[in-house]
Amino acid sequence: MRKRFKVLLAVLSLLVLSACAGSPAPDAAREAVVLGFSQLGAESSWRIANTASVKAAAEEYGFGLMAENANQKQEKQIDAIRSFIAYRVDVIAFSPIVETGWDNVLAEARQAKIPVILVDRMIDSPDESLYTAFVGADFYAEGRRAGEYLLRKADAIHAEHLRVAELCGTPESTPMRDRQRGFLDVVEKDDRIEILESLNGDFLRSKGEECMKTLLEKYGVGGIDVIYSHNDSMTLGALDVLEQSGAAPGRDILMITVDGEKEAVDALKAGKINCVVQCTPDLGKDLMELVRGLKEGREIPRITHPQEGVFCDFDDLTDPSVEGF
Ligand code: AHR
């Protein structure tokens, strides 16, 4: 009975999705697995590409997908997870906007015997049984890569003193915390590096612009040597402001960013950004592999990190492998 209910719901949800997407209705054989996915929002090109990756992979694997977008609101993610539990989906996946505040709803999922996969971001809870697996980037390693680039650059330009302003992502989110920690762990013992301040840009282009205006009013172009930004959206907002002010980003101020979207990689090639630390949004297939493993009753890896690297001005930027998403 429960199975029939699930199949019916899967069919209905897929029909709705198919109607929205204009794609053909699924055949009955494909509704054996239903995945509930709560995306945190659409704050950046990275996030939009990530949502597309999950949707495309669900389609490719033939899984029913109930996808909800929480528009940056934790309450909406909690509501979505509760609705997935009520629908009795097979697996719940979600990208937690912040790390805390999930214990109750995830305990409800566990009570309903629905496995939970964290996508992209982590939760902070002493109870490790609240989720089954995590798939996403190693943000701490990304922060370290940004710091390592800066020290290499400092050596190359024989810098004696570099003043760094940091544009931070959403407070209490995993990428914000870990990209900051990783970067600091590499640079803070180096006497040449001074962190001027860290501003919250919430991973948004508009806030990247605001932060850059604030920094320019306070320090002027000559008072900042490096911008370390936790994502491309904020970096691109900062670039707009710098260029409008007559500054030459990439030359007057070193620009270090994380993600690797096409616009940022193009700016790297144009000399306006110095270093792009890659963070792939393409997590869909890895997620579906985990879902399939769960459905087949296999043991699945607790942590899956995609392979990522760095593009920077030490590289041959004409190499065709240097490209954004
Ligand atoms: O959690 C991943 C981060 O979130 C990406 O770096 C950023 O662009 C997004 O908003």
Task: Please describe what this structure looks like.
The structure is a single chain. The protein has 325 residues and is of the alpha/beta class. The chain folds into 2 domains: 20-137 and 282-304, Response regulator (Rossmann fold, 3-Layer(aba) Sandwich), CATH 3.40.50.2300; 139-279, 3-Layer(aba) Sandwich (Rossmann fold). It has 10 helices and 12 strands. Strands 2-1-3-4-5-11 form a 6-stranded parallel β-sheet, sandwiched between helices. A 6-stranded mixed β-sheet has the order 7-6-8-9-10-12, with helices on both faces. Helix 2 (45-61) runs parallel beside helix 10 (284-295), helix 3 (74-87) runs parallel beside helix 4 (103-111) and helix 5 packs parallel to helix 6 (174-187). The chain starts with a helix and ends in a 13-residue tail after the last strand. Residues 1-31 have low confidence and may be disordered. Bound molecules: alpha-L-arabinofuranose (AHR).
Number of helices: 10
Biggest sheet strand order reads 2-1-3-4-5-11
Instruction: Give the class from helix and strand content and strand pairing.
Output: alpha/beta
CATH fold assignment of the largest domain:
Rossmann fold
CATH class of the largest domain: Alpha Beta
Number of strands: 12
CATH architecture of the largest domain: 3-Layer(aba) Sandwich
Helix content: 40-55%
Shape: elongated
Task: Considering the chains and any ligands shown, give keywords for the structure.
binds alpha-L-arabinofuranose; elongated; Rossmann fold; 325 residues; single chain; 2 domains; six-stranded parallel β-sheet; six-stranded mixed β-sheet; alpha/beta
